[in-house]
Each structure stands twice: as structure tokens, then as C-alpha cells.
Amino acid sequence: MSYRLGVDVGGTFTDVLLVDEDSGATWRAKTASTPADQAVAVLTGIGRVCADAGIEMTEVAQVLHGTTVATNAILEGKGATVGLVTTAGFRQVLQIARSFVPGGLAGWIIWPKPEPLADLENTVEVDERIASDGSVVRPLDEDDVRRQLARLAGRGVQALAVSLINSFADPSHERRIAAIAADALPGVPVSLSSDVLPEMREYERTLTTVANGYVQPQVKRYVQHLSEGLASGGVAGELSILRSDGGLQSADAAVGAPVTMLLSGPAGGVTGAVWVAEQCGFRDLITFDMGGTSTDVALVRDLDPRIGRETRVGDLSVRASSVDVRTVGAGGGSIAHVPQLTRALRVGPQSAGADPGPAAYGKGGVEPTVTDADVVLGYLPSSLAGGEITLDVEASRAAVGKVAEAMGLASPEAAAAGIVDIVNENMLGGLRLVSVQQGFDPRDFALVAFGGAGPVHANALGRLTGAWPVIVPPGPGLLCALGDATTSRRDESARTVLRRFGQLDGTELAQILRELADEAGERLAAQGLAREDQTVGYQVDVRYHGQGFEIPVDVDAEWLDGGDALAELGRAFDAEHDRLFSFLLDVDHELVNARATVTGPRPDVAPLRLEEGDGDPAAALLTEHPVHVGGERVTAGVYDRERLRAGDVVRGPAIVTEMDSTTLVLPGHVAAVHPSGALLITPAEG
């Protein structure tokens, strides 16, 4: 037998999913996260799930891990002290930045500008200059380099970033500085912009390179500790880390380029949602991941998640490929409040977090949260998961009652309904960001809901968006770990080209893209993925000549074999530009950047198949429970998801409980049980 382990580390819990690749059988474990050292919780969870499955850790062939180590280093400001080397005259590149201020017209008045990840006093200039065409304007002064690196050594830098002007056109000066740094700063990791982001725009390239250096020492310590723990536990299989774009990379590759894993956690959920949707026969979907603090949403077409060229974490925005995930500050722990000035109900973005958490948890929380509103409305029965979880209904009523009192409402139920309506509208805004705002009609997509709180609100979001069916996967709170276990290896190479189509021909474009594919393919081959098992995809950034922004366009490999690659590319760009902006320009097109992405085969994990039922879910009915929907009190059946069979149809109002989540089926809707175990919620016929 062959086993794969998917591991996802969250802020509150660490989820571990063990998959038997032959039978598709899964075992799940949840353990409290250990923020001081995430590896402790990971190793604890792995030991627990292997014990549940009755196997030794030595039988695990692969450990596939989505981690927030790099993300947390950015958010908490706990990264390395980075030294930055720039071309003379560009020392303030991070301080000048881009003239963007979030918020309204007067946002700059209250917005505290974030400090750069590399301090100005740790930034040095070296005497050199390369032109945009790659020619050397001024040779590198190596004596000057040694003097400047000696200054940084005296300041105790823990990582070095090198970003010289136009190095994307010729990396030789940066590579020479790296060689000198090996002697001048022994043991200090070096990040070169020509390796991290070989593209034009010096600010984005410098920022991304510095971010890479900022998180690198912490990521290295974590990966080494986890690798050593796995080895000592007897796990002989390889450790792989999830990238922000949903692909896998070896642990060594992750340490070398940690900026590629800033959104490692959310990417796992999207990958898992794609796998679940495919089992159910749906190829176009919107993912809806609602946790305790925030909700992550993304759009997938033809089982291919939309990949963006920007990764945003807090105030930091770097140029690195990532799944196009949008985050909304709305979750189960979001606090409801009524400002004195407006007397209008607000929900979030403040959150009760995990400690003390919602009042329902009985840990001392007193603020009314979305979870408390769900409890008051009866959507979360007081006893869940066979009695393992008990919620304090009276504490929730008392907390939500404060909102009712502040608004002059007759009952806590009325206030709770308002809280749920508002948080649903907040999350609808996030769903519109990835659909309507991008030119897509959500009614053409299925909605895959997961996370601990997602299935409670999923039916309502389906009704608001018109996205049917709403798919609730089995174990929705563990879907990110499933995504880690069902994804494939991935790498990419990029290069700035900056040529008008009139200055380029299809043969030259094909040569550039194939060279990039060879570079990425060689790196994956070094990680053990044979060239014959690799699949290549191409993408280029195109704009109209004179525009200040570009649009990524996928390149069909067949275009490269014919003589009209540029014509096909121009037509594809025009179609995308028209879809996004509803106009075209009668000017030449311009190629800005070219990229090649190489992926390996997706692991062959057999989906679980449920026992066939007769459509009647009566055997899974536990009890009945009152719920408040649309201002009315109705009785809902409470079902144990473990007892549902394929083909069973649960009619709303109903509540379906399981270990890590609860699904609400609203009146006028039904939830059909798919053979893979997913619930498919749709409006009832008639």
C-alpha cells in the first residue's frame, strides 16, 4: 500500500489527512496549532493519524504540506534583518515605492505607511550600470562591492538581497556580487533579483527579492526542523511544500525561493475544491472558504484556478504567481457592533479570534459574533459531533441580546438574523470580486463551500449569487489538507521581452518560450520528476503599445508550431481586453513578459465511494431542532453525515452535522448526497 499525507497549518488548528492511494480511504486528525513552532503540531498530528489508521510512519511515501510560516513572518514582522545591494543612485527604491494609498480620498491622512522590509541604513549602493538591452554601461567595481558588504557585515544582516537596475537583461553583475558575498558574509543566504523575478520594473523586482530574503532564514529553520522530526519518526518519504500557485515544490526549492509560498495555505483549499468538484462532474466553480476570522474566495474555470501575478499579504504586495484568492474580513468570529453615531448594525472586521472566541465557546467571550448569531437562530445545535462539542446557547443569546437592545429590536433572534444577513452580504461582495468584477456570471459556476463556517452560510450564498449547485465536500474543515495531498509538482521560469509584435516573429517567440520551459523542466528534473512526466504551459503578458499595464494571456502550444502564433496571440488578447474593458485600440500589440510553467502528473488518489442508498435519509436522522429562517420559526431535521448514503436526498430545512463542520439546508432547497460523499445543494423543484 502507498500512503500520502496532506498537512495544513492554520492559525487555530493543524489538519492532517492520510490518504490510501489504492483504496481512496482517508483518516483525519485535528490538533491545536503551535505558533511558537508549527512543526510540533504537525508531528503530533501525523503521529495521531498514523495511529488511527494502524500504520507505521515508515509506510508514508510522501508528506505534502501547506504552511503559513512565510505568511506569518510577514504579518508579524518577525523576518530576518535584510541587507540590500542596489545600483548607485537607487538606494531609496523601496522608500519611493509606488504612489498608491488604500482607502478613500483622504485615506493618506490616517494610513500609516508600512516600513520597508530592508531598512535604509541596511541598503548600500555599488558602482555599476547595465542598460535595458543588457549592454554594460559601467563595469562592476568589485573593490567597492567588498567595501559595501563589509559595512553590512558590521550591521549584522541575516540575509542579503541583490537587486541591480536592469539585471533582468544581464544577471552577470548580480552573480558576481553573490560570489563575493560568499566570502564577505559567510553563512548569510543571498537572494538575487535575476533569479527571484527576472522581469522589468525595479521596484516590484526589488521588493519581491527583499521579501524572499526576509522570510528565508525562518522558512529554512522550520523546514529543517520538520524534516529532522519526520526522519526521526521514521518517515522515509519526501517532504514537499505547497506553492502559492497551487503546485508542489521540494523542501529544498521552498527554502531557496520562499517568496513562492506566501499564500501556501489558501492555495491548498482551492486545489482541494477543484478535486472535489471534478469528482462531482463540475469544471467551473467558485471556492468559498469561511473560517473564524476571514473568508477566502477564488474562481476556477475548466478545473484550472485563475493564477494572478501578484501575491498580497497584509500591506505587502509582491510579484509572484499565486492562485487569485480574495480575502474578506468576515468569519465565524467576526464581531457585531452598533456604532453610537450611526446606530446601524456592523459586522467585522474585528474578530474574537480563537481566544476567548465567540460567547458560545464558553471561554469567557462576551462580544456577539457571527457564530453566536448562528447559535441563536438554531443553525448550530447545542450538541454537535455526537456530543463532542457543546455550545453555550444562553451565553450566545445574552451576547446577541446586546445588539437587539442597542437597535431596539424585539428579540435576540431578530438581531441574529440581521447579523447573518450582513455577513452574508459582506461575503457576497468578495464573491463578486472574483466573478462579476472579472466579467464572469456567477450563475455559470458551482459554489464549493468549505472551512469550519462555510457550509453553514453556503446555501444562503448560493441563493444570493445564483451559483448552483452548492457543493459541500466531506470533511470541509480539512479540505486544505486534501488539496495538499492531491496536487502536483510545479515550477515556472519568466523573462522580460518588451518587443512590439511588429519587431517579433512567431519563431522567435516559440524559441523564447521553449527556452523558459527547459529551465523550469531542468529544475523539476533535479527534484526527481522525469522530463517525460512533465507537462508544459505557456503564458505571456501583452498590452497595446503605449499602455501602462498588461494582461496575461495563455499561449496554446499548437500556435508555436504554426506560423501565425503572434496573430493568434493578438486575437486572444483583444478578446480578453474587450471582455474586461469593452473596447479595443487600433495600435500594435506589445509583448512584455513571457513565462513557461511546468507541472508533473497529479497523484492518482482514488475517490471514496459511498454505499448506495434508496434516497431516504431517515437512517441518518438524529433529532429535530427549531431554526429561525426568514422571520419564521420552523423545525429542521438534524442528520449525521456519516450515516448518509449515496443518492439520499435531505430536504430543507435541515442541519447536517459532522466532525469538523455543520451544513445548513434552507427551506425550499434539497441536498443530494453524491457517491463521492459531497452534498449538492440546489433549489427544490416545484
UniProtKB/TrEMBL annotation:
Which residue ranges does the record assign to the Acetophenone carboxylase-like C-terminal domain? 507-669
Domain named Hydantoinase A/oxoprolinase is located at 205-486
Among Pfam families, the record links this protein to: Hydant_A_C (PF19278), Hydant_A_N (PF05378), Hydantoinase_A (PF01968)
From what superkingdom does this record's organism come? Bacteria
**Hydantoinase/oxoprolinase N-terminal domain residues:** 4-183
Please give the name of this protein.
Answer: Hydantoinase/oxoprolinase family protein
Q: Which organism is it from?
A: Geodermatophilus maliterrae
